[in-house]
Amino acid sequence: MPTFQASPDLRMHYLVDDFTEPWTTTDTILLLHGNAESSLAWYAWVPLLARRFRVVRPDMRGYGASTPMPRDFAWTLDVIVGDYARLMDELGVQRFHLVGAKIGGVIARAFAARRPERVKTLTVIGSPPPLRTGAERIPALTEEFETHGVEHWARRTMAGRLGERFPAEGVEWWIKFMGRTPVSTLVGFNATINYSDIRADVPKIACPTLVITTDESGLASVEETRAWQQTIRKSELLVIPGNSYHVAASDAERCAQATLDFIARRDGV
């Protein structure tokens, strides 16, 4: 199980998938998962991406097999961006294609804006607006996590996350998967990163950017998504029919293929 000492308080777990021709040199894609997930969230993407790219899938600090974070950890976007940048340094990758889903898309946007020299293209899938509303719910969510556990919250909210077309067996898998998140990590992360304000970051994104959403997403309307997408000069918006907001999971193959097509068209543009 590959791990990397990203900082004194973090042993980061990650996976590398590379099924490209062994005699060629290829670009790298860094995949950033969402809240209460891990590198395993990208299971359906790997077969499509890894034949053409080296694919790096880290577990964000606090999640998956990476070190859990205490309740009072001082979460910031810069801390998370720094973790991922050091991982890519460790792997010897200076520039790469960056893909983020859900809150991973918020982190990815901040990364692209704050470390522009590292990002060749950016893909953001089913991600909240630059300023997410609802922070007033933090105390109630914290009580739910601590009283009933993460799986209870995941089960209560999964319908909006995966939409009505997702198979029941798949819904149950995602509930159990997300339910394994340490409560201490989620309490601190939800109160800070989950409601980050990246309004100043988004217009600074200079790389070609693909934004993917659904036409009935519970996170934001198509019009709300288009409003911030259009502030990124080299950007495109893809709207997929459906009512899931975790479209990277509900429509994984379509999103992965759209990402590959986008990179082929816009890399270096």
Explain this structure to me?
By secondary structure, this protein is of the alpha/beta class. The protein has a single domain (3-266), classed as Rossmann fold (3-Layer(aba) Sandwich). 38% of the residues lie in helices and 18% in strands. The chain has ten helices and eight strands. The termini are far apart. 45% of the residues are buried.
> By CATH's scheme, which homologous superfamily applies?
Alpha/Beta hydrolase fold, catalytic domain
CATH class label: Alpha Beta
Q: How many beta-strand segments?
A: 8
> Which range does the strand content fall in?
15-25%
* Low-pLDDT segments, ≥5 res: none
Q: Which fold does the CATH topology refer to?
A: Rossmann fold
Can you give the mean pLDDT? 96
Order of helices and strands: EEEHEHEHEHHHHEHEHH
Q: What is the end-to-end distance?
A: 37 Å
Rg (CA only): 17 Å
**What assembly state would you assign to the polypeptide chains in this entry?**
single chain
> Residue share in helices?
25-40%
Structural class: alpha/beta
Task: Tell me the major beta sheet.
Answer: 8 strands, mixed
Q: If helices are DSSP runs of H or I spanning 4 or more residues, what is the number of helices?
A: 10
In total, the number of domains comes to 1
Shape: globular
Please name the CATH architecture.
3-Layer(aba) Sandwich
Major sheet strand order: 1-2-4-3-5-6-7-8
